[in-house]
């Protein structure tokens, strides 16, 4: 007779006596009618100061989330969440400590897209909120419920809340808003796709119909309205709020004062006249398209450059030529500024890229995707250590790269549907997989890197590599146009890719690149080029801080009939 060792016997007995708790989700009849496909999230939070859906983050205080996809839901059914699905920050539900929590069920709705490339995929669609899963109009959820969690007792939650539609801003004297149907994007996605823009027009715009202006394109995350412009002084009754990011009090008043100061400059008689736009890149993957053509996202680069921008220039009297367009932005917007300058070198006359997302994939934050096998772990002959993901200016690490990706794995699964940072990079840069979703650069769970995908990234989106590969063709069109700024203690190690890119740019000849690369001493994300003022001020001044350098470009490149003092072209 064969006998089990006693410890195996005890494990088997333990498993039999601790069945998985049932988690039953009831959807109210009214909200269940248009529900078909989506992702069900179960969220735990340790306090009631913030709803669980707003508390999932890279920080150590993150709420707990467990996620599960579902398809073909039938109205009136209840949903059962399998607690064995992947969780973050705690992977296995059995390891969630016993105690008091506020729990919430949340459903991210998926829509079906029949794309022109022949693939049918299911994705959450932006509802003009910037693809923010926890507040997307139409997504549904339960009210937070206080429980005592013991890992054994089941949960019954009722989803009876729905996120309301976005209230879109109204036009003012200086700020106009447009929605523009892109034929290119609509064809790709198999449905109407719109781009939007908030447009800041110069003083006396309506009084001078014969004036035409340069165009400044401020790239960045999905803006609800034009930011940093205010026609009235700061509110007198503002509370003395605290900004944890900048460790100062009264930041709301600082923001309002800066916005009001910009307005006063904007209307002053000697201030240059130009148009500023902030673009809304609505898409299913993120709050921004990255403004380039992508197999998974679609032809956003062409749509913005050849459809949207000419439409804006025609409607708001832009000059409409490459020498009169400039691009700038920080972080995502910094990458976009450099990318569109490189991809469309004659359509823009200068880029100002602050704290750009990785522009050299040998330093894809802390990973060299071409030479390393694993994104999450550094492996030696006798030990393995995790790769860091986020730090402060002192170098103190607050998140590991694996955990940042595990958050997305719990929120969105394996098909780049989290709406977060690593998934959008993957969606933009990767080829389409056989299932129609982005082909992963690395296994989302193990971190093992796919070198075939890495090669695709290099040839199509590694901006340093592309410039170096094609300098003999691009160099003359990029000369004097590239300006890059980054803190040397960027929280996400983005300065590493800037160092490598600078090495190439400084080596260029015939022509020499003729721009600038500057670093902020001990500056975190997102330093944008001013060594004398703190980041919490300069981040509010994007629309004015590069004007001297833009003026130098215009003096060199604008035609003789361009008024170089007021930046006006008479027609």
Automatic annotation (TrEMBL):
It comes from the Bacteria. InterPro entries: AB_hydrolase_fold, Mycobacterial_A85_antigen. PANTHER family: ENTEROCHELIN ESTERASE-RELATED, IRON(III) ENTEROBACTIN ESTERASE. This is Esterase. It comes from Aquiflexum balticum DSM 16537.
